[in-house]
Amino acid sequence: MQCYTELTPPTAVTHSLSLPFVSATSNNLIVAKTSLLQIFSTKIISIEVEGPAAKDAAKREIAYDPTINDEDGLADSFLGEDSAMRVDRTKQTKLILVAEYTLSGTITSLVRIKTLSSKSGGEALLVGFRDAKLSLVEWDPQRPGISTISIHYYEQDDLQGNPWAPSLKDCVNYLSADPGSRCAALKFGARNLAILPFRQDEEDANMDEWDEEMDGPPPGDKTVFKTTNGDSKKEETPYGSSFVLRLPALDPNLTHPIHLAFLYEYREPTFGIICSATSPASSLLNERKDNLTYMVFTLDLHQRASTTILSVSGLPYDLFEVVPLPAPVGGALLVGYNELIHIDQSGKANGVGVNMFAKQSTSFALVDQSDLQMRLEGCKVGQLSIQNGEMIIILQTGELAILSFHVDGRSVSGLSVRRVSGEAGGSLIPGCVSSISSLGQNSFFIGSERADSIVLGWTRKSNQLSRRKSRLDLANEDDVLDEDEDEEDIDDDADDDLYGDGPSVTQASNGASQPDPSNTKAGDYIFSMHDSLVNIGPITDITLGSSNVYADEMEKSNFEGVTSELELAAAVGRDKAGAVAIVHRNIVPKVIGKFEFPEARGIWTMSAKRPTEKGLEASKEKSATSGDYGADAQYDRLMIVSKALPDGNEISDVYALTSANFEALTGTEFEPAAGPTIEAGTLGNGMRVIQVLKSEVRSYDGDLGLAQILPMYDDDTGAEPKIVSASFADPYLLLFRDDSSIFVAQCDDNNELEEIEREDDALLATKWLTGCLYDDTTGAFAPVQSDKGYKAKESVMMFLLSAGGALHIYALPDLSKAVYVAEGLCFVPPVLSADYAARRSAARETLAEILVADLGDEISTSPYLILRPSNDDLTIYEPFRMNSSSTSNTLSSTLHFLKIHNSHLAQNPDAAAEEIADEAQATMNEPMRAVASLGGYSAVFLPGGSPNFILKSSKSTPKIINLQGVGVRGMSSFHTEGCDRGFIYADVNGIARVAQLPPDTNFAELGVSLRKMTLHEDVHAIAYHPPMQCYVLGTSRPAEFELPKDIDYHREWAQEDIVFKPTMEKGFLKLINPINWTVIQTIELDPSEVVMCVKTLNLEVSETTNERRQLVTVGTAITKGEDLATRGRIYVFDIVNVIPEPDRPETNKKLKEIAREDIPRGAVTAVSEIGTQGFMLVAQGQKCMVRGLKEDNSLLPVAFMDMNCYVTTMKELPGTGLCVFGDIIKGIWFAGYTEEPYKMILFGKSSKNMEIVVADLLPDGKELHIVAADSNCNLHVLQYDPEHPKSLHGQILLHRTTFALGGHLPTTMTLLPRTKAPSLLPPSPDAMDIAADATIPEHEILITSTTGSISLLSPLSESQYRRLSTLASHLTNTLYHACGLNPRAYRVDRDAPDGMVGSRTVVDGSMLMRWGELGSQRKSEVAGRVGVDVEEVREDLVALMGGLGYL
User: Fold this and answer.
1) What was the pLDDT predicted at 253?
2) Residue 22 CA: distances (Å) to CA of 35, 496, 881, 1266
3) DSSP per residue, 1340-1378
4) Residue 115 CA neighbour count, 13 Å, CB half
5) pLDDT per residue over 492-513, tens digit each?
6) Alpha-carbon distance values, 885 to 142, 882, 891, 970 (Å)
7) CB 1318 within 8 A of CB 909
8) CA distance linking residue 1215 with residue 368, whole number of Å
9) Three-state SS for 1408?
10) Widest distance between CA atoms in the chain
11) What is the dihedral of CA 1311, 1317, 1321, 1326, to 10 degrees?
């Protein structure tokens, strides 16, 4: 009984699509990452200084910058000032995440469909899933999110045709949509085509009908269809009933369909398909070649029939894709491995061969461009210029090329391809891409499964010939004018392509009819990177290394207490994107200064302006203190600290900040003995420092001269209520007092604080718990949405939480009436609105604090409402506006709050009882703190026992990430010259630290701390060497393959002379020092030798002294082609200290080879420790051998076992001799090793053959489970139980359950110890519960996948399993599932035999993580059905998530 939980989402982009989705005018990008669907909007930002004068200066600098001329890759002789200005580097397209959804399905296709009507006015999205499911979804602005219109299944057995047809999962299933949105086609199975029609406008239908009458078919059919269509039931859906066509029934040539796509510029839905009557094969080129046919069929959706309108036969055997081309070129581009062929609407073909094999593989007439030496396997083709139809080709290596069409009138007379030089951005993409989508405005999105996905922007240089003329003959002004017009045309065309056909398309086609000689010049496009999405897929190998590696003692003392014990180091990416990714679950701050500060309780820093009398001096002062920063980003000067002295007194002190330190400030009117500070900040545009004490508010000028004291004295009653908390928003101050009343003050023009009269009786009568002020600069809470021109003073909103749990919003300075009241905030519903009402008996959440703050980064920020309950499990709401149907367009009817998915649960503070008693008061009063600029983020910090940051980037949702270390008492931003945009905090151990967020680290996109070190080559394996604190990597890069010249029986090989050689991998071993993550040694392996595995093993190095040492063991494979046997090699290395290179102190370590053993047959695919005597187990070919290291450095075999076909994985349960072997065909073997005598014994095998990719052993109490993953992305749990009757005395491993992982293929499994999370529940007197707690399993398995997701398989005790499986079942029934998918069916492999699924399935942790989406009322109901209360459910989830405390 286990639970599978995803720790990080998938990151590898598999599909992308651009369309207007959120509204009719929006420009959205849909990104699919296997099972994650993300919706982005685009934002074009200017990265230059604001103001026209600054812009001109920037342009002049660009114009005269000589480096730009070099980058352009053009001769300097004809580069004028105007041409450099032409390259506009200041505009960049950025992505902003709108929403994301984890789907219970594997996405295989995305297409856009324009339906007759949609809720948002935008287009609909049709998503194809494995194996043959379609979901039609649209954007619903009423509750911002996707709404499922329909779901279509084609997985029924009767649709598959004959019984011997291949199963759906073995076929390539994909989706294509008609550009006119009249239908979509799903090719599924071997030869099936499902057609899903969509209803379109009546006018179009009438036009179609008129044309059909002209063309001949009788109009009667149409009218019949229209009457049936008028049926009221059918009119509601945007789609018609679908039908399935058998492709060979359309034409006998379609026996082997290769690819199809719908074409542009046809009145009826029309698709082009590459097909063959016989299967194409490169091995049969001598017998048959050019056996492919390109056919065009037009569909009659009403008659459910098709007509062949075009057929071109004799095409090369290696074509694999049809790319439809819009006007002005039209027709289709057929892409092959060695050639590109364009076929227009009349069947006229033009082609170009891009390498020397094009001639050899086909007799088809092609233009020879074999000098390009391009391999088109796995390439992607996208539209570049709509004006002249130029296409961009991204090769498998990531290199860019441009395809141009030579157009005569309306017909294409030829094709030409040219590469993009590295200077013009041709090498920006590091490897193979999976999708390409135009974003308009001269940029497109390039998705990749192997590297970071990027937004690539391009600019056109002006015409080369005209530029030469302009230098000599023409006036500069005219040339610039032409260029501007040129650019406008391109933008217009981009819009037309995005939003449908416009009149300028015809102009563009006319323009393209004159051949333009400049287009054939290389380097006329310049590509640049605008934005990127981080990707850590595919994860090839992982290891755990120590994170306590420091350059010197100073750094070591600084980082003490804020580093985790271990870090997860993963080999990620492929090709030139190969990298090492370092993952921590928490934020490890970069500590700049560390101080003993045990008395600090609260800390506030501020950048107050010094008082000045003359305006001139003020401006001088401002520029002097702030340097090049604006007034908002001035360095902090002062710090106020609230202290608790050892004698029990509480005081406040003020300090002056230095670059990374602070010193006590004396000689001011600041009075420490006035008591502890509740809150401090600046008002009056930084001219007044405000200190809020318990009984009064003090106002100081910038030099801390006392300007005003505002006492808390009620004249009517004589009471002196104490201040409990406060909130600032210039020019207002909000105070909460211990009698549950509030006090609002305003800073007037003379910077004097005065109270604002509370006119609303409700303000006086209601008891207020907490609240905050928010300066609404974006207008998210503006009373009228369209009014953007309100003054700064009117944009401050006051949010109050009443004792009854209601949210009240006031627009300051008006306190006469609340502009918004939501009574139901304490029920934390999924959508909060003013009229939300829960049942009276419903459970409430105990809210301790609310905060409205901006979250985001420099590209985009937006306000969020953050609720902090008593247990610190934060709830985050995003405000959205909805146009209400009622006539009153007030804030209360239009403002709603949507709960953001957040699975983070606060760590239970693990502390001694007396420490809790001592700190309880202090930590509970420590409020959340909004930090406007923290290393580029607008963030919120939550102090207390589980300190964490809420971070959000423009490409992510808000994520809550813990701060490494113990509980935090006080925290503030810290922005000085020595600590740019950092923070200062004091922890419960009395240590104060000045720190920054670590540089080059990504937090928000994965919800963990991630740092990538790119190596620019494939990384196959990684291991950590603890004694020397180094990482050893096995890498490879492609090298040209040379035929051996000295072989007697192939004399002709010596004569071979070709320039376009095949490539083979060449392996390297690299030693990396984690002090600065540089490669300090590289060992080159033999040609064609590739590293298969690297492990650090504890081996016995001496038979006499039995000395053990940690040694690095490397297994390699030497593969020289399929006609020669594969050989292997084992290396054993030690890491030794050496004298470092000059100026590189980190190079003081080196790999020293100790032993090497050649394996004549078979590769070394896995190595492991075995037994207790320091031997190693080696999987070599079809044998597994136990080897020992002898004194003479040879590896002596002592025991062996014959294996099956190919061992993919081999693991030992440490120190036991029990090991598991995974075979690529035969499944799992479980064996044991004895040392007296040396012997390997086979215990049991899996009952069925499985294609095992990775496996591991999972001990659970007295039971031993084997967890294995197969190539179909299924997780199998087997058990060795010789006492079970079905196991035949243990010979058969019992198959307990199978759990489908969707599209996430596991690459590694690592058995890890489990840390126990401290419990918040009081200890139970029941002995049964104590016994149950004692049996919490001690291990769990960390699983990584090709998609970049990291997950955890945790064993559960019997009581936990029952609770959590019931909870998951209830949540599956309760929650909304995007795209209408079924989570239960998703976790069951359709093709698995019934016996393999098992009755007790693995609990789906992704369902459990959605527990927080429920409101408090639903939470208590669901927990009641499970049979426990809400706190116990939370305890189970914390125990599930808190197992990796050392990462």
Assistant:
1) 84
2) 21, 18, 14, 47
3) EEEEEETTS-EEEEEE--HHHHHHHHHHHHHHHHHS--G
4) 25
5) 444 444 444 433 332 333 333 3
6) 11, 9, 13, 47
7) yes
8) 64
9) helix
10) 113
11) 40
User: Is cis: bond before 998, omega within 30 of 0?
Assistant: no
Query: Which residue, chain included where needed, has tokens 């360095």?
Result: 635
Report the mean per-residue pLDDT for the chain.
Answer: 84
Listed residue (638, 1226, 1205) closest to 975, CA to CA: 638
Report the alpha-carbon distance of residue 538 to residue 570 in Å, rounded: 10
Given a cut of 90, is residue 1343 above it in pLDDT?
A: yes
Q: How far apart are CA 33 and CA 21, in angstroms?
A: 18
30: its two tokens: 């849909």
> What pTM was computed for the model?
0.89
1175 close to 1188: Cβ distance less than 8 angstroms? yes
How far is Cα 168 from Cα 171, in angstroms, rounded to an integer?
5
User: How much of the chain, in percent, has pLDDT values that exceed 90?
Assistant: 57
The pair of three-digit structure tokens given for residue 777, joined into one six-digit string: 């600069």
- Say if residues 315 and 294 touch (Cβ distance below 8 Å): yes
Check whether 712 has a pLDDT greater than 90. no
Tell me the chain's radius of gyration from C-alpha atoms.
35
Q: Look at residue 613 in the predicted model and tell me its pLDDT.
A: 53
pLDDT at 462: 57
C-alpha to C-alpha distances, 648 to 645, 675, 1208, nearest whole angstrom: 5, 12, 65
d(CA 959, CA 874): 11
Q: How many other β-carbons are positioned within 10 Å of the β-carbon of residue 783?
A: 18
Q: Which residues, other chains included, contact 1092 with Cβ-Cβ below 8 Å and sequence gap of 6+?
A: 1020, 1021, 1034, 1115, 1116, 1117, 1128, 1163, 1164, 1165, 1166
Per the omega criterion (within 30 degrees of 0), is the bond before 538 cis?
Answer: yes
Question: How does strand 1227-1235 pair with strand 1030-1040?
Answer: unpaired
Looking at residue 808, its pLDDT comes to 94
Cβ(775)–Cβ(794) below 8 Å: no
- Tell me how far apart the alpha carbons of residues 741 and 723 are, in angstroms, rounded to a whole number: 10
Poorest-confidence range of 129-133, 223-227, 1135-1139?
223-227
Residue by residue, DSSP assigns 119-184 as: SSSS-EEEEEETTTEEEEEEEETTTTEEEEEEEEE---GGGG-STTSPPGGGS--EEEE-TTSSEE
- Dihedral pair phi/psi, residue 801, rounded to 5°: -110, 120
Cα–Cα distance, 1078 to 716 (Å, whole number): 72
Ordered DSSP codes for 395-444: -TTS-EEEEEEEEETTEEEEEEEEEPPGGGTTT-S-S--SEEEE-STTEE
Asked if 931 and 981 count as a contact pair (C-beta separation under 8 A), the reply is no
Whether the per-residue pLDDT at 392 is higher than 60: the answer is yes
Cα–Cα distance between 968 and 602 in angstroms, integer? 10
Q: Can you give the three-state secondary structure of 793-841, one letter per residue?
A: HHHEEEEEEECCCCEEEEECCCCCCCCEEEHHHHHCCCEEECCCCCCCC
Lowest mean pLDDT among 426-435, 457-466, 580-589, 1209-1218: 457-466
Separation of alpha carbons 982 and 587, rounded Å: 13
Please list the residues that pair with 948 across neighbouring strands: 942, 962
Whole-number Cα distances in Å, 468 to 79, 168, 520: 8, 60, 16
* Spatial CA neighbour of 654 closest among 688, 620, 606, 619: 606
What does the alpha-carbon distance between residue 1338 and residue 1313 come to, in Å, rounded to a whole number?
6
pLDDT digits (tens, 9 = 90+) for 517-560: 334 444 478 999 999 999 998 999 999 999 888 888 888 888 98
User: Going by C-beta distance under 8 Å and a sequence separation of 6 or more, which residues neighbour residue 496?
Assistant: 386, 502, 504, 505
| Number of other residues whose CB lies within 10 A of the CB of residue 843 | 19
Quickly count: other Cβ atoms within 10 Å of residue 202's Cβ.
Answer: 11
Q: Among residues 1352, 1350, 1347, 1351, which one has the least CA distance to residue 537? A: 1347
- In the block, which residue shows the tokens 């490397």? 1114
Q: Which helix (H) or strand (E) holds 1330?
A: helix 1327-1334
